[in-house]
Structure prediction request, 165 residues.
Amino acid sequence: MNPSHFSVSRVTLALVFLLGLLLAPPGSVQADGAETLTETWQNETDSFPVFGSCSDPDGEYLITITTNGVIHGAWNQNTGHFTWSENGSYYLEPLNAASDTTWAGHYATHFDVNLGPGNVVIRDIFTDTGLGSDGTREVFKARYRLTLSPNGVVREFESAEFIRH
Prediction:
């Protein structure tokens, strides 16, 4: 597979999906006028190069992932909802790095957007737990939330946590 296939195909899929939410002609219309689109995948495996890791930001690595996920959207005249949930396992091996440590772990991510009359809520959560061949354990958690209310008030929250032991 093309080394950039996974990331490019997922980004392309998400963009096409979002455009479909905005531009799609009436198709899967339900009784209440709502339309939906859903895309799922299971046990997809891909390998591609990545640059940097938490412990070696300048290194070049090859990552192999096996992933499961779902992208779902629903909308009607007044509201819309988009969700992307994905989880999987990975194996990270150095190609040109300061360390010969390999990493194996699990990640999970959830992203959603809710649109209502005059308001928007965006939420993104990412977690990663990895174990190095040298016995080092790394945990990374990131959270983001943005709320825009009908009266124009913006509330934003973000946090990130990195634990290494």
Notes: The longest helix spans residues 5-23. The mean pLDDT is 83. The chain is about 10% helix and 60% strand. The two ends are 35 Å apart (CA to CA).
